[in-house]
């Protein structure tokens, strides 16, 4: 086994042990190199969203029957050099999903949009550049589920937990580098934190 402060996956000691516990792996599993064909056994049934491969198509590929295109959300700077951003739909970038599959999961296609994950705060579950789809019809917080939020113009994907008095806790999977953030109701209003929707689908990149 590697020393307690070094891991072959570039993650901290706390995160390494958390992964092993959550995925029922033997102690030290994440410290040893994986063969190319070896995969971590993700507990799909316990995740509040689906992790699936992404289909390949281009703008010229026609929509099939029962298929819908979902737009992406992105941060848009209000004025050149201001540093202030707001979240809008990206008009040209879209992903395709089956409408029947979405409705079977309780998601109305009209309520769904996609989001690109930035940074390493949600590793190892979602790496930078991964895509998730959110259901804007579900903004009520269920503790531990993953949501996209508008944090004063910044688009973030986090696990959310309710706190007494109307506050919320924002949690990252990479807690060694990104500790929990807690906001009271007053701070939520001051920081303009708004839940955009619950993550119902995700594409995980390794």
TrEMBL record:
Residues 77-199 form the Peptidase S24/S26A/S26B/S26C domain. Keywords: DNA-binding, Transcription, Transcription regulation. It comes from the Bacteria. InterPro entries: LexA-like, LexA/Signal_pep-like_sf, Peptidase_S24_S26A/B/C. Coiled coil: none annotated. The keyword Mitochondrion does not apply. The keyword Ion transport does not apply. Gene3D superfamilies: Umud Fragment, subunit A. This is Helix-turn-helix transcriptional regulator. It comes from Pseudomonas songnenensis.
């Amino acid at each position: 086994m590697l020393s307690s402060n070094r891991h072959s996956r570039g993650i901290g000691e706390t995160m390494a042990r958390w992964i092993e516990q959550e995925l029922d792996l033997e102690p030290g599993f994440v410290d040893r190199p994986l063969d190319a064909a070896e995969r971590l056994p993700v507990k799909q049934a316990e995740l509040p969203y689906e992790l699936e491969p992404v289909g390949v198509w281009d703008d010229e590929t026609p929509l099939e029957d029962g298929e819908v295109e979902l737009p992406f959300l992105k941060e848009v700077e209000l004025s050149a050099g201001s540093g202030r951003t707001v979240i809008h739909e990206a008009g040209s970038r879209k992903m395709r999903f089956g409408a029947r599959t979405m409705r079977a999961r309780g998601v109305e296609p009209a309520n769904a949009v996609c989001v690109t994950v930035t940074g390493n705060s949600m590793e190892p579950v979602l790496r930078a550049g991964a895509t998730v789809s959110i259901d804007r019809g579900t903004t009520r917080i269920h503790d531990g589920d993953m949501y996209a939020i508008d944090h004063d113009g910044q688009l973030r994907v986090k696990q959310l937990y309710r706190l007494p008095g109307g506050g919320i806790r924002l949690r990252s999977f990479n807690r060694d580098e990104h500790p929990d953030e807690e906001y009271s109701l007053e701070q939520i209003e001051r920081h303009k934190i708004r839940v955009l929707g619950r993550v119902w689908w995700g594409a995980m990149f390794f």
